[in-house]
Amino acid sequence: MQTSLILLTIGIVGGLLFGIFRSRLLQSRLLDAAARREKHAPKATEIPTYIPSSGNQMKDSDERYQSVVSEESKEPTILESSSRQVNELSIEEREEYNIRDQARDQNITNLRLLVEDLFEDDADSIGEVGTDSEKEQSSVELRRTWIEQYEQPLNEHAAFIEKEEVGSGIKILDSSVLEHDDIQTRLEREGGKNGEVQVSLAWDDFNDLDLHLFCPSGERIYFNNKKSACGGELDVDMNVRPTSENAVENIVWIENAPLGQYKVGVHFYKHHSEKETLQICEFRARIIVHGEVRDYSGKIAHDQAMQMVTSFTLNR
Known about the structure:
Layout: H1 2-40, H2 61-64, E1 78-79, H3 91-110, H4 123-127, H5 132-162, E2 170-171, H6 175-178, H7 183-190, E3 197-203, E4 208-214, E5 220-221, E6 233-236, E7 247-253, E8 260-270, E9 280-289, E10 292-301, E11 307-315
Antiparallel strand pairs: 1-11, 2-10, 3-7, 3-9, 4-5, 4-8, 6-7, 8-11, 9-10
């Protein structure tokens, strides 16, 4: 009898201690999330965000392009869970994903979208250009010429990528890693805007990566369509020429972001071999919705298809 009483007492005390531990752990996580929002999205509108475990069905097309937050009701935007990532797949699912990935790589090759020696081939004309601004203008003209020839195939490839529902990024959860991240500093350096929905891309070499954002409206924001009819804007686009090894790109809705699904794509547009860059580029992607911050890491090769890094859905 006495032994049973002792065991019961131990069980009660253990349960209380475990409850206290879980409560403090949850509080620590909430404080850490709040600190990340304050650090990485200091100018974003502070609106409560609810992340359900499973998303509701999308509402009709008329409603999903309304303002994210009703000015009258002030109802919070629902940020649904992001897409599953490659590292979360089972062995069988990963094999199926690899087959789709190989098809995407074959697609970009078939469409002849791999940019090889775009600037080196024009070295004679560029070599006569003196100032940095003139060199930059020459690079822009070269890319414009490329787009005039390949815009339709690039759109076809992007539509193929958009079908993928599994993200290729790895969600970053380690706050110690994020503590030293400088995406916000880079955006401030380049004059990038903050807003209620913001997607940023950063990488650490002279290669030219491009951020593509598939909008709920069906539009795609990228370097050849910097402003969408639904209000999004690519306001920072770097390394058309290899000008920075601390590059960043940024797409933002300052307000009135449309409801619906967003997909984040990354394209390795140009390998700047003259800067001795690697042919595989590591990148980070950051998504901010009303102060809710999600960070991802990934890598992409210069001969690889555009990657669908992740997706997220705004609903009510």
